[in-house]
Amino acid sequence: MRSVSQAAFSALLVLAVAVAVAFLTLPIVAIFWQVGLDGLADGLASDVARDAFRVTLKTNAISMARDLAAARAWVRMILTNARARRLLRQAGFGLR
What we know:
Elements: H1 4-44, H2 47-80, H3 82-90
Helix pairs in contact: 2-3
């Protein structure tokens, strides 16, 4: 038998997932509702959309390079620092 707190947690979890799904799908539905499929295809071929895609690709590339550099720095720090390795091992990460 489930306790009241487990049932409340499950209900809260379902509500949170429903809100997240609505938050992610509502803008997409609004775009199709306002412009339609034909208008959306025409809009994606415009110069403004191409510029937006170009800016998005540039910022994503910069962000990924920054994240990769930060990850390499963290890995190097962990591999060269015995205290960091010990703390990660105690936390359950299997480092040698």
